[in-house]
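Quick question about two entries, pasted in order.
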Amino acid sequence: MSTVDREPKLLIPRLAGFYTAVSDLWYPMIRITVGGILLVHGWSKIKSGIAPLAAYLDRIGLMPPLPLAYVVYINETIGAACIILGLFTRFFAASIAIELGV
């Protein structure tokens, strides 16, 4: 008996109709949620200016701080908006993953 052919068990079997009705909405909901969270963080950085972010990056030892601050701005604003819209998601998701990993 192969486990590859089996469907996963439903968490609440009585909601099978609901699960099938919203199964196409999971990926857009994830993109909108993650992109929205990043966009809020990027917007707060834009409001405070680039100098505090560059100073913070310099203080923690990331060099060169000013270009990296612009990369953070781009990732958390333009990248977040593109993820919400579903544009260039793999590129910006990889870029944001590297940013968050650092």
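Here is the second entry:
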Amino acid sequence: MLRADLLGREILLQSDPRVFFITDHYRDYPWILVRFASVDAGALPELIERAWRMVAPKSLLSKYDTDRQRA
């Protein structure tokens, strides 16, 4: 399960319903379920980072982005 805004969740659901889905329990919440055995391994880091960015404190995001630019 990953955090996703409702628009992003809808886009993922339409892009590949074999991988991304929701159940009635999550219908009104900003989460998307992922079949990790089916997801493209190359896409997974970006999906996880996007979900993390939705909840990470701004100070941590700033430090993370700064550290990535230096690398």
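Reply: The chain has one domain: 2-70. Strands lie at 2-3, 20-21, 31-34. Hope that helps.
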